[in-house]
Amino acid sequence: MKNILFLLLVCGVGFCVSLYVLKIAEAQELGPTIVAPSKTLSQPATRTMHFGTAIGSRGGQVAVPVEFDAFGDETAATFSVSFDPTALSSPVVTVGPGAPAGSSITTNMNDVNQGMIGMLIDSANTFAPSPPTSDFAIITFNVAPQAPLGASVLSFGDMPTQRSTSDLFGNTVPTAYVDGVVNIQRIYGDVSSRPNGDGQLLSADVIVERQFVVGTQTPDANEFIRADVAPLASHGDGVLTAGDTIQVRRYVAGLDPMDFVPGTFRALRPVFEPWKNVVDDLNSIWTQRVVSVVQSDTSPAGKVVLYVDMDSQGDEAAVAFTLGFDPKKLANPLVSLAPDASFETVLTTNTAKSDEGQLAILVDTTDALANGRLVTITFDVVGNTAGETTTVAFTDAITKDSTADAEGNLLPTRFISGAVTIPRHHRGFSR
Question: Which of 24, 64, 89, 395 could be a cystine partner for 324, CB 3.0 to 4.6 Å?
Answer without folding.
Answer: 395
